[in-house]
Specification:
With about 350 residues, the chain is an alpha/beta fold. Helices cover about 30% and strands about 15% of the residues. The strands form two sheets. An eight-stranded mixed beta sheet has the order 5-6-4-3-7-8-9-10, with helices on both faces. α9 links the parallel β8 (about 275-280) and β9 (about 315-320). α6 packs across α8 and α8 runs parallel beside α9. The protein is extended. The model is unreliable at about 330-338 (pLDDT under 50).
Length: about 350
């Protein structure tokens, strides 16, 4: 009807209303037929339209894929969205296809299903009795105090130590080197740089790039660690760079630091076993004392997950209480350990 096209050019096109009417019916697939994706892009902006259900029959000119392959992929997506696709229409006259039964993934023979367990009956001589003593009715977690100084052994390791600014890490490094261990230190800086054979600078606020460069340099220099001491969450005062906050500083030097470090170790396939010790201060609480920095506890996420993601890597979280400023010996009391 020529009059339809006259109205189409001279009057407003109620595209949003039309798309909304179709979308209101539910389970609609919007397929743009022809070159360009203008209509599909507009349809995706409609609040009632699922963007995954908006497709195009032709590839974008910058997509390096054959047209036939692209069309078959679109048909597959249409079928996956619930539409009926006439697959016989894709065949030439007289052409037939056969179904092929594909095997399952046969390279990792490990089941992940929870097998049902047989109920074990209680012994006949066990009887439930009421306990009149109220103190026996419940339980409460308790802390166990352990020593801080381990006995010296003849076994030496290559340590990678992320130094804090309180001096605790420096004291640990000094003791390790006296016992014959090889120690490489990493200090916070404005950018990544190598200061010497066993000393590096790294900017935690710049993301993962510094950790990738650090691990690559350690591999190239044959200084790959089998022990890591991460002490960037040991703080004596709230210091942070201009424009930031102490909260964000703790996330950059804690959670994200371990997250990026684990990714870099995995990408370089660093030899294992590897043990990671994460030092912090003011993160755990023994009793009812104030908890200065609860945001540091996000570091427990990588501590618990990294050993599951990277076989051969073990992690320990140790929270320390720093001594008073008047005390000259660093190290503090080992108060809290996970």
């Amino acid at each position: 009807d020529p009059g339809y096209w006259v109205d189409h050019f001279r009057q407003s096109v109620l595209f949003a209303d039309a798309v909304g009417t179709l979308a209101a019916e539910g389970n609609r697939i919007f397929l743009e037929v022809g070159p360009g994706r203008t209509l599909g892009s507009l349809a995706k902006q409609h609040p009632k339209v699922d963007s995954q259900a908006v497709l195009s029959t032709l590839r974008h000119r910058e997509e390096a894929v054959e047209d036939e392959v692209f069309l078959l992929e679109v048909l597959g997506r249409v079928w996956a969205l619930g539409a009926a696709v006439d697959l016989d229409a894709l065949l030439w006259a007289g052409e037939t296809r056969q179904n092929v039964q594909l095997s399952t993934y046969a390279f990792q023979h490990q089941r992940y299903f929870i097998e049902p367990r047989q109920a074990t009956p209680a012994p006949a001589d066990v009887q439930l009795r009421r306990t009149e003593e109220l103190e026996q009715w419940g339980w409460a977690p308790a802390w166990r105090q352990i020593g801080t100084d381990g006995e010296a052994t003849d076994e030496t390791h290559h340590w990678l130590v992320f130094l804090d600014d309180t001096g605790l890490g420096d004291t640990v490094v000094e003791r390790l080197r006296k016992r014959g261990h090889t120690v490489t230190v990493v200090r916070p800086g404005d950018t990544y740089a190598r200061q010497g054979e066993y000393e590096y600078l790294l900017a935690p606020e710049r993301g993962r790039e510094g950790y990738d460069a650090l691990v690559r340099d350690l591999v190239k220099s044959a200084h790959v660690p089998n022990r890591i001491l991460h002490a960037w969450l040991v703080t004596s005062e709230e210091r942070f760079r201009p424009g930031s906050s102490f909260f964000h500083r703790n996330q950059e030097c804690g959670f994200y630091s371990l997250f990026f470090l684990a990714q870099a170790l995995a990408d370089e396939n660093v030899p294992r076993p590897l043990h990671l010790v994460v030092l912090s201060s003011g993160m755990q609480r023994l009793g009812d004392e104030p908890l200065p920095h609860p945001e540091k506890s996000t570091v427990l996420g990588p501590v618990k997950v990294v050993p599951r993601e990277l076989p051969g890597v073990t992690c320990t979280s140790i929270d320390v209480q720093l001594p008073a400023p008047s005390q000259r010996m660093f190290g503090g009391n080992l108060r809290r350990a996970l």
